[in-house]
Each structure stands twice: as C-alpha cells, then as structure tokens.
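thoughts on both lines:
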Amino acid sequence: MPLIVRLALAAALGLPAFAWATTPADIRGKSLTSAGCNPCWGEMAQYTTFSSPQVTYEVRRYDGRDVVLLLPSWHPLISRMSPARVRTMVDRLDLLYATYRELLGWAPPRTSDPSGRHIVAVLAVNGRSALGVAIPGGDRSEYANSILEDATFEADDDVLSRVFISALATNFDPITHWDYGADPSKDWATFLQVWAARRMSRTDDSDVVRWNLSETLQTTDRWSAWRSDPSRFTWQRCVVNAPRPPDCRDHVDAMHGVLLASAARHVEPAIIRQWLRTVRVDTARPSTALERSDYALRTLADATRSDTRCIADHFRWPRGSTLDAAAQYATPFAGCVDGDRDGAPRFDDCDDASAAVRPGATDVPDGVDNDCDSVIDERVVREPAGGDFADNIRAATPIGALPFAAEGVLPTAADRDAIAFEGVIPTTRQDVRLCASGDALTLSVLTPENQEWGPDARVEAGACVTLGIARRHAAFRIDRVGAASGSASWRLDAGVSAEGWPRRRVVALATTGGNGARAVVDAARVPGGTAGVELRWTASGAGVLKAGAVGDADSLVAPPLPAASMGRRTGEMHQLRAQLFRDGLPIEEPSRPFTVATEGFALSTGVTVSSTLPAGATEDAWYIDVPTGIARLVVATTSPQNIDLHAARVAAPVPAREIPLVAAAPARALADARATTPSGNETLTIASPAAGRWYLTPTNSSAAAAGYTLRATLEGTAPSIRSGGYFNPGRPGHGLFVHPAGGEWAGLWYTYERDSGSTWYYLQGPAPAANGQWNGAIFRSRWDGKRAELQAVGNAVLTPGQEDGFTFSWNLEGQAGSEAFRSFGRGCPRLGGGAPVDASQHYFDPVRAGSGYSVQLMTAPAAYEFIAAFVYGEGGMPRFLVAERNGVGARDEALGVDLLFGFCPSCEHVPVTRSTRGTLRRTFTGSGELATIQLQTARVGPTVVHWNVTDAVRMLDERVRTQGCAL
C-alpha cells in the first residue's frame, strides 16, 4: 500500500502514524557539528540521533530563523527535494515554531545545535516503526525519510504533514500538571495540534485533509468511538492504564488531549493562551491521575470564569472532588449551553442559534446542514425491505446523484453492500461520513478507472467516522469486519464539499510587476470579520518584517527583504508570506509564498524595483532589453546612501541551446554611461540607445548596507509583438502563446518541472504601449475539483525583436532566465477544403474556467495544426497535453493527444518524450469558428491526467481578436 494511502488510512482510523520518544536521551550536549556557516544553506555537517539505534551520519543543513532542517547527504527520495520544497519546509516549520512559542510564551532551550536553532532531522534510513519521534520539552525531532514521500506535498501546496505538526508540538510540552497515563505527551500534542494548528491557524494537512475535516476526525469522531462501547472504552482502561490496550490505541487514543481540544473550541483564543501560560508556570503538581485530570478542567474554570463540571458530564469523563471548586462560578461552560433549546448543547450542535439544526434532525433541501453531518441537503436512499444492495463494487446498485444519505443492513457477517452514484466525486472535494450499528465496518471505494482502494476507513459499532478521500471515486462498498453476531446496519452520507484542495487562502499575494508583492485579502472569508485583525509579513530566515491593520492600505504592501537576505549568493530562495492575526495569534493559514528575486532580472519600462546592497557591493544582473525605435532610455536610482550607477550594452539574445540563465554585466570600466555623484539619487539619460540588452549596475559606495530603488523608462515607438505561438528553435519542446484578452494580454507558457513532468503557467498583464514591451505576472494554477486557484510566482517581460519574435525574460520563483523566441508559424489553412479558417487563439469553456486550449493553425512554414490543452492531473497539478498533425483535416477531426516530458526552464535541454494519453476531437462550424473540444484521457504511466470533458468553447478575448492570416 502506498505511503500516502497508509497515512490517509491511519488518519481515518485514528491510528498512530508516528510515536514520541519518552526518554530524554542526551539532549544537553551538541548533537550537530558546526558547518562553519551561520546561516547555512546546503552545507555539510554531521548529526547524531537521540532515537535508537543511535547513529551518526552526514547531513546538509538548511537554516531558518528558529529551526534547522537536516536532510541526509543522500537518501532514496533526494530527487523529490527541489529547492522550492526545501524552502517551503523550512519556512513553514519556522512559522509553526513561532505559533507554538507565542501561544505558550515559552520555547524549549536550544542546546543541541551549535548555532542555537531547533533541530528537525530527517533520518538517513527508515527501518523504524514510527515516522517521527520527539522528546517532550526537547530541542529536536527526528523523522524517517519516507515522510518526504508524501505525493501531495508539493511546493505550491505550502503545507506540512501532520507528523511534523505533532512532533514539534511534543517538543513544546512544558506542562506536566495534567500529564498522566500511558502516553501523556501524545495527549498534549493532540491538544496543541487540534486546537492551535487546526482550529486557530486553520492549517491543512499535506495528505489532502482540510483543517475542519482533520478537527472533526480528532474530536467529533473520537467521541463517537468513545461513546460507542462504554463497557470497553473506559477512562481507567483507555486513558490511565499503561500500556494502553491495542483497541484503545486504535480508536480512542489521546482522549485527554481530545477532551481539552473539544473544550477549547468554545473559548476565545486569547483566554486559552492566558490559561496555558498560567498553568505553565504553576508550581502545583497533583499526585493522582484523577486529581491531575481535575486540575486541567479546574484551571480552565478559573480561566473562563465558568463551571466546567458539565464538560466531564457531557463527555462521560470522571469527576473527582478537586473539580468541585468549579462550582463557584454560576455560569456554565459555553460548550454545555443549549442556546436554541433544541436538546443539543453547543458541543454537538453545529448551529446553536437555530432549533431546526441539530444532530438527528431531518435534513431538508434548504441549503443548510440540518443534521450536522457535514453534508447539505442529502437525499435518503434506503435498502429496499426484503431486498439487498449489490455485493460486487464493480456492479454496484445505482442510487442516483449526490448528495445522498444511503442506509443499509448487513444481516450476516458475510454480507456486504455496494452502491454507485451518478457522476464522479471530484478529487479532494468530498465529505464522506460512515456510521455503524451492531458491528464494526469498513469502507472501500472504486475509482472511475475501475480500481478498487481500501479499506479507506474502519468504524466501530455505535460510532461514526468522517473523512475526505484523496482520489476520485464512483462507488462505495461497506463490509463487516467485527466479531459481533446478529444484524448490523450502516449509514453513509456523501456530498461535494464547498471547498476543495488546495483550499483557497484568505490572503493571496500578487506581484507588483517587479520583485515586489502586495496582499489581497478576501474580507468575506476572514474568520470573525476583519475588525481588530492584523496583517503580518514574514520573510525566509528573518521572521516578521512588517505588521499593520488589515484595513490599512500600506499594510498590504510587502516590505523589502533585509540586506542579509539580498546579499546572499547561494542559490537559496527567499520568500515572503502574509498572514492574519488577532490578539497576537494567527487566525488563518499564511498566504502561499512570493519568491523575491535576489540576483536581479529583467526590468520592464516604467516599473520600479527595490533591493538592498551590502556595503561596497554591486548588483550586476539588472537589465532592460531595448527594442529598435526607442528615442530615449532614462534610468534613475533613489537611496539615502551613496549609490553609483553604470549602464553597458550587449547584443540581444538569439535562439540558442544553452541554459538561458542571465549572464553578469560587463565590467564597470566598459560601461557606456555612468553616474557617480556622492548622492544615491542618480539619473542616466541615453538618447537613441542602440537596440540590445542594457545592463544597469548599481554600486553601493557607502560603508553601510543601502536600500535603493531602480527604474528604467523607454520612450519611443517600437515594433509590435504579434499575437500567436512562439518557441526557442534552439530549445524546442516548450513554448509560449500570447494573445489579446480584453484590455490586457494573456500568455500560456507550457514547460516542465525539474522531474521532467509537464506543467504550465498563466501570464497576464496590460497590453503593450507604444514602446512595445509587455510585462505580465506569472501565475501557477491549481485545480481543487471545481475551480482553479492562481498563485503569483513571478513575472515575465517580452521585448519585441527581429524575425517575428521577442526576447522572453522571466523571473520564476526566484530564478531568472532569458531566451529568444520565434513564431511557430503563420497563415490560415482551409479545413475541409472550405474558406481559410482564422481561429488561432486561446479558448475555454466558462463551466471549467481555469482550463483551456491554445490553438495554432498555420500554412507557413508548412501546413500544420497544434493544440495545447491546459488541464490538471492528480492532486490538481497543472499539466498540458498536446494534439498535433501535419497538414490540415476536416472541420470535425479527432487527433491523438500526448503527455510530454522534458526540461525545466533553467535546466539543460533534452529532447522531449511522449506518452499517448487519449484523443482530442475538435469541431469547427461552417463559418470557421471553433465550437467544441472533446478531450478523453486514460490513466497511463506514472503521471496521471484524468480529464474527460466536452467543452463548448469560446475565445479568451471577448473582442474576438485572432492571430490573423498574415504571414
């Protein structure tokens, strides 16, 4: 079973996917040798483990602000650790560390690392039963390297596995007052993970579990299991006893932590923070398990000024005499209140303001989850009396469309029920809940590719389990797996979730056209509204750089990176994130990152860029490409320090096979123009500049680090870039389509990841002015099962050149490159022998906006048809498929469609390889308009692209401007 399936199964069943070390092995001495750098990024060191067997091995260290990530110098998954993924892991671990520290007002002493950072070490070998181990109150945690195998953890997901979240929570365990039982650190980690990481920060899991589903799994469903068999699942047997019996570990593990997390849902975060900080410094230490259990609820009573005894009553928890002190408060604890008097307290009621909404209510078609089962407006489909649902999942009984609530009976241990439904639940957009009566049950699924997976969940008699299945599915099967005699019954609720994966962030970052960013806040989705909410900007390795009220326009503008970041030349990526806080605590996931260019890139006319130079340093990679027809080039800097400016011209790039990285500027002695006054406000004006690449070189001539701005402006009338498809003849296999779209231009760049898998980016920016240059933001798109989410990952500058082409300069996730592109071809062919068809443009179906097709029809240099389909693969990752043919065909034609594998933008060129994945059928009307595209793909090979649609397409440009027929 693949690891991702094992992790999802462990989550669904409540199984421990990891464990904690409980013996504080030598944590005071140094366990990591110095790498001779601070901070480090990829330098070698040696690490000695605390877990058994104790080993010493070589690692590469990657330093954040508070944490250091150690990766073995070699391990089986080393190819998965791209620079973006390493940066993501370090930054997210830093943010998680800061969240726990702020919550407690405390952090574990850091003594194991010579640089004083908290160690997160990936082991060189697996061979251990746990994915992660950590020491309570310790300064390091360790992980089997198979944790890196998680197939859905990609850089743009920007999330961490639950293993990292929980193990780091164990390190942040300073409270021993309520520790008792077989594994108290696990209770603490459960509380901190469920309440702090999930409910407060709304952190999603990398195994495609949204924060609210993860919380439901750990709280509501754990209580369902706890209550399912009171004679077996008891406090003494499952909470206090050591070791815990296996059935307790499997189904009701860490119940004390679940109790506290369930209670904390009904308390203001600031009160929880004060409660934890007060308890942390309390010198009291109750002696018995019952007294220590009472202590947690008694101190919570003091923090909330409410009677918390009802918590124990509601959750079937023991009450000792020391909890009687909570009776001094007349107000019952908030979770115990039944505000709408419908018989369900807030602990169970998903809407305590409406008596029509409660567990057990009848769900009616009103757009509300009336029965609090996470599925809205489900139809109830019951197994017919005297009948039976099918046994075979491949011939399952059809029950209609989603959403539904199916109910069935399994009279014997050998019986099973299989149901199929209309349509297919999109990947990562489903909420599924299975409840069992009379016996334990499992749930298995069938995918549209006729593959059976499972069991995906197991549920005890009398309990329920909620899960999101991380793959498309079209049928379910329920099996009995318990030992109970007699009849069993089940209920399965299934519906499409309002939010899929990746969950849209409340804060998104947009590029400002250069190396800066701004935050865009979806105010309607801010938890609790925007009043009193602060926006904080954090940077890689630097922590918080800027903070301000979310309603302040200046707060939304990203700060520049500090000089220490801008001055490094290690190939390290530096990223900015923005996150919302209230009362000093995060209330949402941080934005996905914006990678700042630290080594210069192409400037666009009229766009100001900001940077920082260490004392005496020079930036030698800023440049602007100048087309023919420019009358004047004006370059200006501003700085409070002494910044000198040089400008030097080289020839424009030509199509070439070499990696299109940006060369350094010519030596300053070779400059064509210079401004070297004592001021930092320099201006160069170059009349009638020769066409080519002009390097603009600022130098910090002062004795301290200097921030500066740089702006270049082109004045004149240059050739226009023509609409159409372009590529580099020296590096064939990737290319760019550019077309007008309303008042802007749009681009589709099809290329490849470092692992050679296909990917694509969407570009958009204002239409070029008279100077001919176009600056477009680069977005990575991700499909959540219903819609696309765009993330700004850089920008591109197109400068018109000769031979129907342009210079394509890009800044992509911190890397810069530039190459010369030329037109694919031109002309309008006669499809089916009719009139010339002028249809080269980009098309999409509004029903699936975020996907689409770039169509290129040509007669020169030869008759050819090329269609690139911009769709999505497994996990919603962007993939492109290509359908092409020599010559031209009929107006209704089916073409084979291929998935391509090739080279990344900054990699050496290799010939692309192909894998046939299905067919693409396109139909043109009699008047030559593209009407429909039908794409049918098959699951073949290691990269899955399952995209079976019939799209009624329209042009992206509402003004219907095509490429035209001119050669």
The chain has six domains: 1-173, 175-337, 379-496, 516-596, 608-716, 724-955. The two ends are 56 Å apart (CA to CA).
